[in-house]
Fold this protein.
Amino acid sequence: MQTTGFFIQHKTLYQLIINRLDGHSISCASYRRLIFDLVQKGIGGFIIFGGVKEEIKPFIKELQEMSEQRLFIASDIERGVGQQIEGATHFPCQMAMAAAINMELPEDIALYKAAITAISEESADIGINMPLTPVLDVNRNPSNPIICTRAFSGDHFAVALFGRIYIETMEAAGLISCAKHFPGHGDTETDSHIALPVIAKTEGQLGESDFVPFAEAIKAGVSSIMAAHIAIPAIDALPASLSKKILTDLLRNQLSFDGLILTDALNMDALKDIDDVAARSLNAGADILLHPANAEETARNLFECLSRGTLDEHSVAASYQRVLKAKQKILRPINPSVLLNPDSMEKHLTLSNRITEKSITLVTGGGKSPFIPEPSNTLLVEAGEAKFHGSSSLAQYFTNHMSLYEEAAKGNTGGITSGSRGVIRDISGLTLIVAIYTNISAWRGSSGIPQKEIDTIRALLSKSGQSAVISFGSPYLLSQFKEADFLIAAYEASRQASNAVLKCLKGQLKYEGRLPVELP
C-alpha cells in the first residue's frame, strides 16, 4: 500500500466512507462541529437526509471549501431533490415515470429527458454531486416491500431503456449517477433494512433478466453502482455486498465495470450478525462504504484489520485510486446556466405535474367508459396509511368520506360514519370510491395493507352501486379488488397524484398511463 504513517493511512481509509448528514440538524452547533471534525479527518463524503434548500446549499459549500479533497455529496433523490430537500421539486416515482412515458413517442422521450435534466440541475444547484439513482431493479415480486414502485417496470428491457436515458442525461450534467441495487433487488419479499433477503435464482436466470439493466448502464457510462444486501446462494453464501464472486468476478470482470462500487447503507439489519463488515466489503471489491452507523468506529476497525492483515492493502489502494479518479469529475465548477431561478423552479413543477397526470392508469373497466361520480352521491373510503387520510384532493371534493383507520379505532362495525350523513347503513345507492394509500419506505416491511382492510373494502364493494378502487402506491394491490367496476393505478401517495386522479374522475383528463408491471 502506497501510504506512509498512521495519519496518512487513516485519511486514506476515511476517503472510502460516506457518512450520514441530517439536514435538519445543521442549525445545531454541536452537530456542525461533529460534521466539521469528520471533514478534517478526511471523510470521503456525506449522504444527505432532509433539510431546507436555503440552509443546505450554503452548508455544503462551506464543507467543500474546508475539505482537502472534493467531497462526495450523495442523496437518495429517486423522486427528485424534493424527496429529501424542502424547497426543491418532487417528481413522480420511477414506476409512475414508466407509466407516463411511451418510449415509442419522441415527444414522450423528450419529456422524460427534460425531467431528468431538471433533477440534475436542482442537484447541481444545491451541491449534490452523487445522486443515488436510478433504481435498476426489475420488480418481479408483487409482495416486494422495498422496491415496488421505486422500479421502472417488471420488464428488464424497459428498465434498461429507462435507465440508460436517465444515466446518459445525468452524466452529461457532470454528476455521478448510481445504478442500484446490484445484482438485482426486484424479486424479494424481504426488506433488507430489516433482514437479509434470499433470492433463489441461478446466475443464468439472473443474467437473463436482473443483470440486463446493469449491463446496459455500464455501456451508458454509469459512474457508480450500488451493491445490494441480498443473498444469492447459487452464486455465493455471502451477501452480495460482501461477495468477491459477485462484486469482483461478476461485476468487475464479467460485466467489465471499472467505476465506483458502493455498498448499500451499512446500518441496515441485513448485515447485523456479521463481523468486520466494512473490511469484508472492501476485500470483496467495494470502493465506498455507505452510511455506516459510526464513521469513526468504522475507520478504526479498518485500520485494525489492516494491521492484522485481514484487510487487503491492494484492495484499499485500488479503491482509493478509484475514489480520486471519480472526484476529478466533480472538481469542475457548476456551469452558471444551471443555477436556478424562480422561473426555472416553476417550470420544473409544471413538468412534474404533467408527468404525474400522464401516469394515471385505468387498469380495468370491463370495457365500459369511466363514470363521472356525483360528489353528493359518492362515498369516498380511505384505506392504508392513515397520515394521508382526509388531506387529499378527493377528501376535499366528495361530500361523504370515511377512514377505515378511524373506524377501526372507534370499533365501529354497525355502519359507515360519513362526514355529512352521520352513520350510513345502506350504501347500495351510492357510488363508491376507494382510495388506498401505501408508501414504499425503509423499515416498513410491506408494500400492502392489512387483510382486515382488504376484507372491509371487498364487503363495501359488494353492497355499493358503481365503484372504483384507486391505488396511490403499489399497483399490485388492485388485484385484490376485481369486483370493482374500475381499477386505477396512481403509483404514489402524493398531492400531485391526488390532484391528477380527481381531474380524471371529473372527466377533465384522459387516463393516459400504461401499467408497467403485470398484476397477479
Observations:
- The first strand starts at residue 17 and ends at 22.
